[in-house]
Amino acid sequence: MNKGVYVALFSIGLAQGLKIPIHFAKNKEWRPELFFQTGGMPSSHSAGVASLTTYIALERGVPTIDFALSLVYGLIVMYDAQGIRRQTGELTLKVNNMDELVSKLRHDESVKFEEKTPKKLKEMLGHQPEEVVGGALLGVLTGTLGHFLFKKR
């Protein structure tokens, strides 16, 4: 694997790992399983693409096609992470709350209802804009550090 891939994967892992203490600081709840989940602060998607883009900019230069491809791809990933995926997560919250509404309707007895055990949908899919920015800043930092660590002496 090339060094840019190592930097991006490290950045993604670091972002995922940071979700645990950040969540603990905000909610006083220790949840190590957040390492394996999407969503939350910081965005590992943003961290990964920002670190790769930064690494390419420092290693190859901004006027290169490598940088242009990485930047455009990164912007699309970050837009998607806070846009479409976030909206999907918010819709999922509403769908998951429908179980409570159906339960209330069932007590009315005017609606025939066949109960099936629903599988709760994952609600934390995308990111708030500040989570994307946090991931991007983490990515720029790790991309810069990666460049200097791998720099030939």
UniProtKB/TrEMBL annotation:
Which Pfam families does the record cross-reference, listed alphabetically?
Answer: DUF212
Q: Which domain of life is it from?
A: Bacteria
The family database entries (InterPro entries) matched by this protein are listed as: DUF212 (IPR003832)
Query: Matching PANTHER family, A to Z?
Result: ACID PHOSPHATASE/VANADIUM-DEPENDENT HALOPEROXIDASE-RELATED PROTEIN, ACID PHOSPHATASE_VANADIUM-DEPENDENT HALOPEROXIDASE-RELATED PROTEIN
- The entry's protein name is Divergent PAP2 family protein
